[in-house]
Write the structure tokens for this entry.
Amino acid sequence: MASKIFFFGDSITEGQFVGAPNRWFDIVSQKIYESIDIEYFMGAVSGDTSTMGLARFPKQVQQIKPDWLFIQFGFNDSNRWKSDLGLPRVSKELFKASIMEMINRARYFGVKQITLINNYKCLKVVEKDLFLNNLVSDYNQSLKDI
């Protein structure tokens, strides 16, 4: 019986603006596929925050009951829109709680291996002199803390 690996996240996992075979999902899948019998699943939605991911977690991850789960969120959580008057879309505290809830649910549904993915450096300017990389670093630290 094949093991199941589930890649769960936002546009970084989905590979927005990057096509197959250059998405990290494809690269990791191919490397693992070469050595063992695996079924791959992807549940990634561009623009989703961790709280939005948590809302779709039961329908996607819990139904599949993967053996190995990759979780990647943080970029959209840390985004600050003018309409939110400078607040992040999701606070660091709620981000951390959402990721912890995903981990707890994954364990409850039998996931054997959980890997949290940090977000890469980004040079996108959000506002003058404010780079997305500076915003997401605190969220990456939350993942490291977990």
